[in-house]
Every structure is written in structure tokens, then in C-alpha cells.
What we know:
By secondary structure, the chain is of the alpha+beta class. It has two domains: 8-69; 75-174, no CATH class. It has six helices and seven strands. The strands form two sheets. It has a four-stranded antiparallel β-sheet. Strands 5-6-7 form a three-stranded antiparallel β-sheet, with helices on one face. Strand 5 and strand 6 form a beta hairpin. The chain crosses the membrane at residues 16-36, 42-59.
Amino acid sequence: MSEQSDNQLSYYPLKLWTDSIITITIFFLITLLFVWNKHQPYGIILALIIWRVIWNHFYNTVKNLSRQLSGKPAIELTEEYFYDHINDIKIYWKNITQVNLWQSRGSTFVCFELKDLESHVKQSKSLIDKFLYKLKVYPEGVFVKTEISLVKGKNEEIFGKINRSLQYKSTHISSL
């Protein structure tokens, strides 16, 4: 395997497609239920609010399906940064202080503790992240996370590869 493909982690199709079908089905069912509500003006307004709230998740789901079908990677480990295509977030190695593995409700995440949270918030498409950060109430110790359950391979091996990349990059970046 070449170094280029070693640094590109592909999607795990079964988990991606299962999660995607569930997300897309729920998105359209909730929308239809509110639009077909007998209280039409309220149903449409509520549907629009729900669309806006879950739009980013729906959009990421469709984008990830498209990336998987075209053979593009879910995660890239470059010399300068960790690129999470799942959430469309680029995290520079020099901005990462710590990496942890976290499991919740059947999903596994790699969590990054960042030196500069503002760089993440600027890239984030989450209205909640932006709102909390603007109000200066963003909780301390909040980690930026990437769901590696959607990445092909054993979770511990994926985490190990990311952690080794961080250790290698941090020692080489700091020595420059």
C-alpha cells in the first residue's frame, strides 16, 4: 500500500448506508407529517424550522454518500492537518493538544482537544457551536469529534493511526 493511500481512510459502507437511510427517512417523514398537518400554517412553519435545524446533518449524510460512491476518502492525514471529510473540518496538527477515543450509543469517535477553539468554530456549520461560542458560554474541555464508526477498519487501529500521526507531526513540527 502506498504512503498516499495509507494516509487516506475510506468510508465503511454498511454503517454509512444504514445511518444514511435512517437519517433521510426520518428527515422526509417529519417534513411530511408537519406539512400534512391539519393546522397548515403552523405545520409549514414548524417544518421549516425543523428543516433548518437538521439540514446540516441531512446535507452531510448526502455528501458522505456521494463521496463514498465516488471512492473519495472519509479522512485524510496530511503533513499539515487532519481532514475530516465526514464533518468537513480541517484540524491543523499544531492546534491539537490531545486525542482520545470515545464510544457512545453504538458509535465510536475520535475526540480532539484544541489549543484554539475559534479556528474550529469558524469552520463549523453547526449553529449551536457558533451561538455558544459567540455568547462566550462554550463549555471548557469540549472536544471536536469525528465519528470513526463511519470509517473502514477497526476503531482502535484507526485511532492508533491518527494518534501516531499526531505524535509524529507534533515532534517534527516543534523541532522545526
